[in-house]
Structure formats: C-alpha cells, structure tokens
Task: inverse folding
C-alpha cells in the first residue's frame, strides 16, 4: 500500500515540531526517516500512524494509504502495524497472548475462530523463531527477543503499512546487525510497505530503499542511500551521513592557504570551507605540487576493513580522520607521532547561499 | 568487609529501640483493647455487640464503606487517567487539589458540608423544599466519608500510571482495540494491585472516620450512629466494656485490612520476582 502525505505539519503548543511536508512512499518500499533527535522524524511517523494529529488549520493536509483517505481515520481503523521504540509489550500477558491480542480484539464478525487464531499466532512465532517461548512473559525475554515479539504482534493483524520507531535503538551492536538483516529479509519476503525511524545513518543507509533525511522539523533530502551519500543536497545531509573533515582558509590566486598549509583550488578569491570524507584523504611522505598539508598522526584504530587514522596539525581547528587500507598502512609504516602529508583526492563545497548548488571537485 | 553503619552495637541499639517502641505504641494498646473488651467475660462482650444499637451502627458503618468504595474507585481511576494521560492547562493545579481532603481537618470538612447542605445552608432551603434531607441522615455521612477518602485511590494510581506511561495503551489501540477493551485488557491488569491497595486504604479510613462524620451525622442512636460515634457515646455513658467491645470490633476490621494489605504486597512482590 502506498502512502501519500500532503502538507502535513505539526505544532505542540507554540513549538513547531514539523514544517508542512509532502512525502510519497511507494507500495512495497522500505523507507527510513533519518535525523538527529528533535528533527521531527518520530512526530512524522506518529502522524502517519494516527497516534498524533497533524495540525488541523491547513485545509489541504491529507494522508492517503493507497486510494484510501485516512486523514480523519482513527488509529485503530487505519490498519497499521506499529513497533514501538521500547517494544511496549503487554507486560502481564504471555508472548502468545501478546501476538494474539490484535486478533482477539477484532469485532466478532471479523474475528477468526480460536483455532485459526492459534495457528496464525504460531505461524508468526515460527517466523520470528520464538515458538518455544510462547508461554514466557516479556520480562523473561532478551531485548532482541522482545523486539521480535513486538514485530510479530504488529504483523498479526496483517496491516497495510508497518511503522517502526527506532526499532533497534535499544539493542547491542551485534543483535542490531542481525535483526536489521532479518527485517530486510522479512520485508522482501512479505512485501509490505514499511517506514522506520532511526538516528543511526548506517542503519538507514543499509536498510532503506530510500532515506528521508530530516532536521529541525524539515525534510532535507529524499533519495536512495547511494545518491544520498554521493550527491548530498546540502551541507547538513553531507555532515549527517558520515564523518567529515573541514579545511577552512582564504583563497588567493587559486591557492587556499591556512597557516603553513596550502592547497591548489580553482576557486575565486575569498573565504572558503572545503569538506572531505575520511576516505578522500590520502597520506604520503612528501607534499605535492597541488597540496602541502603537513599533519601528525595522533591515534590509530586498526579495527575493521580499513585503518582509521586521526590527524592533527596547528593549522587545523579540529582533528581530521582518514581511512587507510591495511596494505597502505603497512607500506607507510604508520605509527603515532609520525609526520606526513595529507592529499585530498576529492573535496566538497556547500556555498552559504541556498541558490548556489553544492560542488564536488576531484583533485588531480 | 563491613558495610558502613553496620557495627554490631549500632545494629543492636536500633533493633531494640524499634522493637520497644512498636511494643509500647502499637502492640500494647491493641492488647489492652481486647483485654478490656473481654474484661467481664465473653458473655458480656457478646451482649454488648449484639445490642440493637451496636448492630445498627455496624450495619450503617459497613454500608457506608461499601458505598464509598465504588464511588472512590471510579473517581480515582478517572482522575488518575485524566492527570497521567492528558496534558491540559491546570493539570498541576488539579494534582494539588486532589490532596485537599488530606490537608483539611475532617471536622472542618464536616462543617463545610453542614454549611452547604444543612437546613440553613446555601443549598439547604432548596433541598428542604424538595423534601430531601442530606445532613443528619446517612446520605450526609456518605458524602463526607467520600470527601475524606477520595484521594486514596488516585494517590496510589498516579505515580504508577506515570511510570508505566501510555505506550502499552497506544500499542493496544494500534492493534485495533476500542476504548473499553483497551482499559479492561491492558490498563486494568497493569494497575490492579495499586487499585486494590487504594481500595483497602479507602475502606480502612471509611470505617474508622470520626471527625467529619460526627459533625454531619447528629449521632442519633439506632439511626445515624456509626461505629466510631457509637463507641464514643458508650464511653461517655461510662459503659467501658461496651465501648471497648466496639473498639475491639473496629480493631478487628483494621487487623483484617492490614492482613489483606500484607497479603497483596506479598503477592505483588512474588509476581515481580516471577514476571
């Protein structure tokens, strides 16, 4: 079921939580709402669910599920599944009763027979691999298990759309990875439309078909993870989606200078701030004709596919982060305290004026 | 390793002080009540208890308590729900107002009711012209008892419902539950122990209330005399055994209440350990 939001805004008292936004989510899509806390992403999700009302002042405000106008439809009749941040399982009910709840509260006409409820609940518990825990109480389960129960509970009523509020926020890193993969798999298999909220950019980029980046009650960009990462629309998106190194200085005659560092740039004279991703910084033993950026290694973290190296220099306000392949790490014999030269492979620039488009340049 | 403040001498002094004080101030009076009640034998005790006036006082007292409990229950749940599930201007003020019956002396509460609903009171003339008598009759006793006891249930529920939040209720609604179903299957099971605890406290106070009731009841023997009032009258009449027989009855109700409360707490703690 597709979701169409038109001119949806929200105030809490005098505070604006959400600027009027428009958003289209296609049938079968898995969309992540990504943003820092206070960006309005949870408010937006709760408005889609009907747990929160959008401002009524706007006549054109509208929420459609497929062709169905649900703007004024109560939560209970919207046919949504909602997975809460801390699961919100019914603490006095067993796992079985939790999952069965949505089926047992249906009006008598639509309610399945008790035998059918039983088989449906066990089918769901099997799907989330918890059938052996059907008689346990929520407090007897681990966080990951509780999360799976809450998913099964939400799916039991066969919702048109599945909404998840920070679904993996309270779990440890390993379980989170596993559940993420599992949710992606489940989504592809059952093909429902889902929207989830997260503040974790990695989670959003890995899980979503498209990501909605939000800040300060506004939608900053809606795109596929790849486009989002490669072609960020503005500085906020660029900075929020990963680590960023700043290079600030004054340009004169095509050379940006900052203390004893300088870099050839093809830009008009004036103050400039360039941004670089850690993987766009190359380390070498000597400066080049293009750049002279002396740095000192202050920390090394060799965990993962690449080595993360922290760099400092007197011309830098904040340390830089560079990622180096393990092979290069060994070849350069990197160690703390070593003095090297940084070479940008590429840099990004986001002009202050909104009218000007962001720029990316490769360095020769 | 010894924990701070856990010296043997300190422990011994504290424990003996606690035991001594409890015995002196709690246990001894209780024993004295029963000793006095049975001072002239079980026969005299029984004669006093089965006396028409005493029996009437017992019935009136228990009747008022029985009516008070459901009223306070509904009021308390509604109020706790309102205060913890909605935000509206004046919410804090309302939470403070709940405590008024605790803050005001019961005698003052009784006087206010007399002033409002008594024959010469603000509403008295109207009530009188419609032949409704509230003061110096059982409805008046019920009204002041409700006033005095109404905060108990709400006071028990509010902190619990605040701590639990409304997430489970929201979950129930997203799963299609209607209001009453949600309340019956999600809210009520979560608050039932606090609710029962509130009821026990309400009952204890309703049975034992003296000050407010004494102002509005008129203490007519066999008509508007509750057990505490009856007790006082017997005592004033120098019928010590009779007075202490009533006192023993009240003490018995109190003990039963305490036992029920202890039982509930025990069950609740077992449930917590289990769930």
Result:
């Amino acid at each position: 079921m597709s979701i169409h939001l038109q001119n949806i805004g929200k105030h809490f008292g005098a505070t604006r939580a959400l600027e009027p936004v428009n958003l289209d989510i296609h049938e079968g899509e898995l969309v992540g709402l990504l943003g820092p806390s206070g960006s309005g992403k949870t408010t937006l999700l709760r408005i889609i669910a009907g747990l929160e009302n959008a401002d009524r002042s706007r006549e054109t405000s509208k929420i459609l599920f497929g062709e169905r106008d649900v703007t004024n439809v109560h939560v209970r009749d919207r046919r949504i599944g909602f997975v809460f941040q801390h699961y919100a399982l019914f603490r006095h009910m067993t796992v079985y009763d939790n999952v069965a709840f949505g089926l047992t509260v249906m009006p008598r006409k639509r309610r399945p027979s008790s035998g059918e409820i039983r088989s449906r609940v066990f089918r769901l518990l099997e799907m989330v691999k918890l059938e052996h825990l059907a008689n346990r109480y929520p407090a007897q389960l681990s966080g990951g298990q509780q999360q799976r129960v809450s998913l099964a509970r939400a799916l039991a009523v066969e919702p048109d759309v599945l909404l998840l509020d920070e679904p993996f926020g309270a779990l440890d890193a390993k379980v989170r990875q596993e559940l993420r993969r599992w949710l992606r798999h489940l989504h592809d298999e059952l093909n429902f439309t889902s929207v989830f909220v997260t503040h974790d950019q990695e989670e959003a980029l890995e899980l979503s078909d498209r990501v909605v980046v939000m800040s300060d009650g506004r939608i900053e960009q809606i795109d596929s993870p790849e486009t989002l990462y490669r072609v960020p629309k503005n500085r906020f998106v660029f900075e929020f989606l990963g680590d960023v190194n700043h290079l600030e200085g004054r340009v004169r005659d095509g050379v940006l200078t900052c203390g004893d560092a300088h870099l050839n740039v093809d830009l008009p004279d004036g103050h400039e701030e360039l941004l670089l991703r850690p993987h766009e910084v190359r380390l070498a033993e000597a400066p080049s004709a293009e750049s002279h950026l002396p740095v000192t290694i202050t920390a090394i973290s060799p965990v993962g596919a690449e080595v993360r190296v922290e760099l400092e220099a007197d011309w830098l306000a904040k340390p830089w982060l560079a990622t180096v392949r393990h092979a290069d790490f060994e070849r350069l014999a990197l160690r703390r305290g070593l003095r090297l030269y940084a070479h940008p492979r590429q840099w990004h620039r986001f002009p202050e004026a909104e009218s000007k488009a962001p720029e990316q340049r490769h360095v020769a | 390793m010894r924990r701070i403040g856990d010296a043997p001498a300190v422990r011994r002094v504290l424990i003996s002080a606690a035991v001594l004080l409890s015995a002196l101030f709690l246990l001894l009076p209780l024993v004295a009540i029963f000793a006095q009640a049975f001072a002239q034998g079980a026969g005299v005790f029984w004669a006093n208890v089965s006396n028409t006036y005493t029996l009437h006082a017992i019935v009136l007292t228990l009747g008022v308590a029985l009516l008070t409990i459901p009223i306070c229950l509904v009021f308390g749940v509604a109020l706790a729900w309102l205060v913890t599930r909605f935000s509206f201007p004046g919410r804090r003020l309302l939470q403070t107002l709940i405590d008024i019956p605790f803050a005001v002396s019961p005698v003052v509460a009784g006087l206010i009711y007399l002033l409002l609903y008594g024959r010469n009171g603000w509403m008295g003339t109207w009530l009188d012209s419609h032949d409704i008598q509230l003061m110096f009759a059982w409805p008046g006793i019920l009204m002041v008892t409700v006033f005095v006891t109404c905060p108990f249930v709400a006071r028990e529920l509010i902190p619990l419902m605040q701590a639990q939040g409304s997430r489970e209720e929201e979950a129930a609604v997203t799963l299609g539950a209607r209001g009453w179903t949600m309340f019956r299957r999600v809210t009520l099971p979560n608050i039932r122990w606090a609710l029962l605890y509130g009821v026990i406290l309400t009952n204890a106070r309703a049975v034992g209330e003296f000050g407010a009731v004494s102002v509005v009841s008129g203490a007519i023997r066999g008509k508007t005399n509750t057990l505490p009032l009856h007790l006082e009258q017997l005592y004033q009449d120098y019928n010590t055994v009779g007075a202490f027989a009533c006192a023993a009855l009240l003490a018995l109700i109190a003990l039963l209440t305490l036992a029920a409360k202890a039982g509930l707490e025990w069950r609740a703690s077992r449930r917590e350990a289990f769930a």
